[in-house]
Design a protein that fits this description.
With about 650 residues, this protein is an all-alpha fold. It has helices at about 20-30, 35-50, 55-60, 95-100, 105-130, 145-170, 200-220, 225-250, 255-285, 295-300, 305-315, 325-355, 360-385, 395-435, 440-465, 470-475, 485-510, 515-540, 545-575, 615-620, 630-640, and strands at about 315, 320-325, 575-580, 595. The strands form two sheets. The chain has a two-stranded antiparallel sheet with strand order 1-2. Strand 1 and strand 2 (about 320-325) form a beta hairpin. The longest helix is centred in the middle third of the chain and has 42 residues, at about 395-435.
Amino acid sequence: MTDDTGDESGTRPLRLYLHSILSASQSSHGVPHEDYAQYASYCTRRLSRIRHGQTVKKDLLHIRQFKNSLSTRQTENDGGKTKKYAYRHIDLTNLPSEVLASSENYILEPLYCAERCWAESHAVKSDAGSGGISSFENNPRDGWSSGRIRSYSIKKLRKAVKFAGLVEKLSVSTVPVPRETEDEESNEVEEPAQPPCDEHTQLEAKAYASFMRGNLALEQNSHLVAYKEYSTATKLCEQIALSTAARDEVEGDVRQLELLDFFTTRSQHVIAPLLRYCQYELQEKGIALPDDDYPSSVQSNGTTMPQSTESMSQISYRENVISIETKELRMSLLKMQDMKQDWEEAAEGNASENGCSNEAEDAKFMSLLNGYDDLIHLANHELKKLESLKAGPAVNAKRYQFVNLVGYCKNQKLKMVMSRNERLANSIVERVKSDDGDDTAQLKRFEDVAHLYDALLQDAKSVSALPGGGTPDDLASGAPVEDEFYLEANANTLRLRSMRCYYLALMHASPLVKKYSEAKNLLEQSETLAKDALEEIAACDQIEHGDEYLDQLEGILNEMKGLKCRIFAVSYLSASSSSSNRPLLQRLHDYDVPSNPTDVVDMPPRVQGIVCKSSFFDVALNYVSEYPAEELDREMSKFGQDDKGSSSSGLFGWFRR
């Protein structure tokens, strides 16, 4: 490949990564932020650099100076009074294949022309959607009607399709080099030249052209044509991905892995949603399509087609079926459906491995939350447009539709957050049961669980207060709707209140806190709430995870029985404690409990004084006999005590005197 200066790279077939080039250009020049005017300006500057290459400017510049170039379009009325530097028409299909292969600028020039037209088409719609706000100070399109804006957008897309088709045609061109002298009598047939691009570049050019034709057909509401073009583009992306995977196995090139990821992502996340949308529109019109035309990457998305159709055009919320008529909301719902499926698969994988989340799952979770926020913002924006309208049956029905859509989106977001928080709380409780840690660690974990249930309780109250349900007349009157959804939300609130009180009681009953009276009151409150929650959940037949909730509450009630007895015993013992240090054998008839640990008996026994009585010595005298003096002398001589007082010798002999 060459750069924008137009240096030659030889006569070998060109290998151009068209989609990678365009992806880098779009990500660096405003497309991620929907600033299409900036991207269109960049394409204009890039085209100027491409056309002014030293070796290609004679074929790409539109000045009359290069009218003798092979790229000049041959017309019947080419004469007339024209200036030297007048505009000349260019037809790149006249160039020989060998010339096209000499520089990549011949392929990039129509490619960026198509990108500029595509960007201008989106820029005019973006300016109209933002209320006329544009990056230009004097926007010439201010004041245009919606019909004129749509006509201008379609016009630019037609030009983009024209240039994209030119890229496809140039990549497979086989025009030979013209002969200098023509022999009219020669019967030799010229052999076609080799295409200027290799097979990979030809596939990318075909995929790009099909994608552009699909965009034009979708803007014109020709869903059948758009479906066929998007199917072709998806199949070509799959073919490129498979070819790069096979090439990586043979060559071991790291870039092939990047291309495999790029085209797989483009097929599944860029073209596939548009393809599914076209199929949904055709199904609503009653046009059936064979399954063979549906690309494999879209079929393996994990969602069956009837379910996706229901989630796109209709949603079920609070016993009502709400139709989604706005295209942007449908596309956003489809995007959220795919993102939620990816997050659930990541969450199930992490739960089966280590039971905790990782950075990839957290990133998907945060992107999912942001997506729901954007969807709620879109629905609120549509709802705000109806505020200035006078109330009536049609206006109330439209407002009812968007109010239920806002409630549905908030409900899905809260359910996802509550599911994640409760899963974290259950994992912490399992670690407490399996790990015999110290009291400080257990108290810290009980505090974390209590905080999680506090957040869950706030989310459950928010679910109970969500808008929607009932009928449009109920929405107009402002009357609260007590349907099955409302009863299930209240039952779940009672369950979470019971669980929160239970873990708060465990915190107060910790040996480090010792607030046994508060723990006993919390257990009684938790038991009352758990019994009420059991009745409410049993009355709701269609509540999600109802059996799990019933088993959880029954298990908590069984644990409360033993825990209440232990707390009652410990609280009684702590209230009747004594500061005495006597051993237990001396406290057999005392009913108080020492505050500090005491011994059963004193070792060695303590010396106890007795009162001297004369009668005691009289009785003892009767049992006292004469001392055995001979035996005592014998024992003293055995230990070396002689008559000279040897016991007083030595270092401490003086103390023995």
